[in-house]
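Bug #77: duplicate submission created two jobs. Keeping one. Sequence:
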Amino acid sequence: MALAALAFYALVVFVVVAAGSFVGAILALQVYHGDRAGSLSLRELVRRLNNDTR
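Kept job's structure:
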């Protein structure tokens, strides 16, 4: 029982860290491209993640 609880907490921590990392990367992309208060569309996000300059 204790092992299951430990595994659950480890999974929760992993999800929180992964989500925080993703949000941080998105915010860093926005600042890098000069869109401090702007919102990103999915197409724009993919273009920036791929470093597409077209």
